[in-house]
Amino acid sequence: MLKLTGDTIYLRALEPEDLEFLYQLENNTDIWEISNTVTPYSKHVLKLYLENAHRDIYDVKQLRLCICNKQHRAIGLIDLFDFDPKNRRAGLGIVVLDEIERNKGVGAQAIGMVMEYAFATLGLRQLFANVIEDNEASIRLFEKMGFQRVGVKKDWIFSDKGYKNEILFQKIHA
């Protein structure tokens, strides 16, 4: 049976009440580099997004889940994106917004639950992740979760410090 509850967190669908959290997260310029964002999001646009968040992964090719702590507070998001049912693969992305919640096993628990869902329920063969080369915490996390480095995209991300390489990770389910 699919388990969306870990030791210290659980995953759930986005709710209308997540508007403020989503607004704070999407407009946090510290994470724009990893989210490929270049302009702020309005609450109106995010409200429209939340109104459509219930749509099926087979329709929108994405699934976004809210990471919540045991106090039922939203602390991050985890996504399956570029869902490709024909080739049985999807990208995986994760962000834990509050730094105080990082380095406590949240990422590993959330990725473990989404991997179980992707492989057991969606029948995927592989997941991939893109990590900027200087994001050491994410590199360690994906390696810990059994993802393999399979390539480097040279000068892939432009930032205020110039171009950065992006590492491509892949997890193939046997």
Give a brief outline of the structure.
With 174 residues, the protein is an alpha+beta fold. Helix content is 29%, strand content 35%. The mean pLDDT is 93.
Notable characteristics:
alpha+beta, Aminopeptidase, seven-stranded mixed beta sheet, 6 helices, 7 strands, acyltransferase
Please give the structural blueprint.
Elements lengths: L8 E5 L5 H8 L5 H4 L7 H9 L5 H4 L2 E7 L4 E11 L4 E8 L9 H16 L4 E7 L3 H9 L3 E12 L2 E11 L2
Parallel strand pairs: 4-5
Antiparallel strand pairs: 1-2, 2-3, 3-4, 5-7, 6-7
Overview of the structural elements:
The chain contains six helices and seven strands, in the order βααααβββαβαββ. The model has no long low-confidence stretch (mean pLDDT 93). It has a domain at 9-125: Aminopeptidase (3-Layer(aba) Sandwich). It is globular, with a radius of gyration of 16 Å. α1 packs across α3. It starts with 8 loop residues before the first strand and ends with a strand. The chain has 174 residues and is an alpha+beta fold. The longest helix has 16 residues, at 106-121.
Low-confidence stretches: none
- Sheet/helix structural class: alpha+beta
Q: In CATH terms, what is the architecture of one domain?
A: 3-Layer(aba) Sandwich
CATH topology-level fold name of one domain? Aminopeptidase
